[in-house]
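**Backbone description:**
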Amino acid sequence: MSPSQGAPVPMPALPEPSPSLPLLAGRRILVSGVLTPKSIAYAIAEACLRGGAEVALTSFGRAMSLTERSARRLGLAGPVLEMDASRPDQMAAVAASLRERWGGLDGAVHAIGFAPDDALGGNFLTAPWESVAMAMQISAFSLKTMAVELAPLMSRGGSVVTLTFDATVAWPLYDWMGPTKAALEAIVRYLARDLGPRRIRVNSIAAGPLETVAARAIPSLTGLKSAWRQVAPLGWDTGDAGPVADAALFLLSDLARAVTGEMLHVDGGYHSQGARVPGDVSELPAGFLSAEDAPA
């Protein structure tokens, strides 16, 4: 089947970045949200290391052992820093630890998101404020808290990158994570405004659905994966976080020095498409796309 008949064209494998010109050479990057090697944040941390950066990870509570195991797999020598997104004091402690370890910071990745079960899965109309407030604080407001604590370390400028799931539309069963991501995307724009004079850029990546530990909490993931495979012009591999990691590498590097307040879609082009017509256009009845059907 040719591309004109609707078959997605596979994304070509990209060569490894040239070791003679690493994008993040000499940069110090903090990455939150790493759990297992399937985590998007893990792929980003790996890409940052490949790009020549020094990397530190954060975690907390029961997830700490998973993150420490991933840190060893990545070859990181430093300790995993404890940072509960709902605890501003822990974020301040992380900033102090980074100042002591590195003296400064060049970039940070906010890969933090959580909503209680009663705020997902068809519970939009019944979710209590307490659950909504928790989702907002951990998934959105924590970006502001993190940026405020880390900005003083970025004396020569820097980049903050967060992860979203395009909140310009409503998604099945995503419920209160939708408005929470909308808040996150707005916070990105306001942080870009207020931190821009310090040469600190703030951007988000709207990724397509990926098979991560966190994604298992989204009841509609299976349906979304199927929709992506059918609609995304470039196709979409839900098991490959590499394209998202490479986009983060770009946003953290000087190649994105004039990019801020942006939401970069890394979704195989899904966001650019409208409704999908069942079957192939060639199978439509004669006259279906006649001149009379064309918009005025």
